[in-house]
Amino acid sequence: MVRPAKTAAAQALAAAIVIGLCVQASAQWLKYPTPGVPRTAEGKVDMSAPAPRTADGRPDFTGLWLTNRPWCPTPPDPDTYLCGLELPMGLDGINIGSSLKDGLPYQPHLARLVKERTANDAKDDPHVRCLPDTFLRAYSLPHLLKIVQTPGLLLVLSEVNASYRQIFLDGRPLPEDPNPSWQGYSTAKWDGDTLVVDSIGFRDGLWIDWNGSEIGEAARVLERIRRPDFGHLEIEVTVDDPKNYTRPWTVTLQQRIVVDTELVDEICLENEQSSRRMK
C-alpha cells in the first residue's frame, strides 16, 4: 500500500530525508573523483563494464551503493507519497514484499500490526524516531551504504547514524547463543562468484519496511550477493522467521554504484523534530 503525501507523518518523513540530503550537499568530498571507474567516451560511468575483482579473483563489492528500485510509478503520480521529491527510494522500502504475487506470508498477529501501522502512517516507525535500521531495511532506504571488502571481512558502513555491519569470511561459526542485536551476526562463504551470507541473532520487533513488516529473534536471513557488472549488486534475500511468517519467503533487492562522492555524517538526533508531528 502506498500512503498519500498529504499526512503529517508523510510530511515529517519527507522533511527528514530532505534534511539528510541537504547535509550531503555541503560535504567537502561531495565531488571528489572515485579512482578506477570505467567510463564511456562521453565520460559517463560504464555501468555494464565488468565487475572488478580482488587479488584472489573474487568479485569485489567495495564501493558506495544505493537502492536501485524506482520509487515512483511510470508515469509519476503526483499524489504518491514522496513521489514529487524524486528521491531514490525503492518500493521495497515501503513494502519489502511488493514483488511477491501474494505479498508477505504474515502470521495473524503481524498481519494485524502491519494493517494498523499502514493505517496510522507508521507513526511509531523506529527509523523516524532515530533508531538504527537493520540491513534488510537499509538496502531500500535513500541513504548511502559503503562496502569495504577484505579477504576475511566484509564491512558495511551506513551514513545514517554512523552505523555498521560486519560479515565475517574467516570461517568462524555463527554464535550459539547470541545477544540479540540490530544487525544480527553474519558469516559468509563463496559459491562461485556469489557470496552466501547467513545471519541470526536479531532483536525482536525490527522493522524491515515502512509498512511495519518485521523480523525478530527467531529469524534466520540468507543472502546471496552478486555483482553482475560494475554498476550493480543483486541481493537475493530469504527470510525464515516462523514467529512472524507462515513460511520462508524470498525477494531480490537491487543496488547501484554511486561514484565521485563520499559518506558524510547524517545523525538523526541532531535537531530531530519529526517524531513530535507523528502523534
Detailed description of the structure:
There is one protein chain. By secondary structure, the protein is α+β, with helices and mostly antiparallel strands. The protein has one domain. 14% of the residues lie in helices and 25% in strands. The protein is built from four helices and eleven strands; from the N terminus they run H-E-H-H-H-E-E-E-E-E-E-E-E-E-E. The strands form two sheets. The chain has a nine-stranded mixed beta barrel with strand order 1-2-3-4-5-6-9-10-11. The chain has a two-stranded antiparallel sheet with strand order 7-8. The longest helix has 18 residues. The radius of gyration is 19 Å and the shape is globular. 31% of the residues are buried. The N terminus is likely disordered.
Short description:
With 279 residues, this protein is an alpha+beta fold. Helix content is 14%, strand content 25%. The chain contains 4 helices and 11 strands; from the N terminus they run αβαααββββββββββ.
